[in-house]
């Protein structure tokens, strides 16, 4: 598999915009693509995505362009497998997982966050906060509707 720093990468879903900020920042500028709803496409461009795909209007797996690596944050590994090049890889963080996609789970603790500190402090990884959030727990339904 090619190095993540030299691959053609697509990130699926907009629930990962915070994760996407780091994903887009560390991948090669020739191969950054991501999906989002219409209202968040400009944010993806600002984060560095070369190809912003509106999943409400396009099926990413039907694009003629295929990807070396697909990072699935919304549990659509079956669709993601159709978007990956032969020999490429699909990593998902949300079940269900369609083989040969790989489920990747990470539990965050103080040690993991300490490893991220240099990247955050140097600006290589930036936290992206939506101006409409955070919402209090009493508005959890509104938060999900916003996604």
From TrEMBL:
Pfam families: ADH_zinc_N_2
Keywords associated with the record: Oxidoreductase
Keyword Magnesium set for record: no
Limits of the Pterin-binding domain: 44-147
InterPro entries cross-referenced by the UniProt entry: AOR-like (IPR044626), NAD(P)-bd_dom_sf (IPR036291), Pterin-binding_dom (IPR000489)
Annotated family: Belongs to the zinc-containing alcohol dehydrogenase family. Quinone oxidoreductase subfamily.
Name of protein: Pterin-binding domain-containing protein
Protein species of origin: Stylosanthes scabra
Organism ancestry: Eukaryota, Viridiplantae, Streptophyta, Embryophyta, Tracheophyta
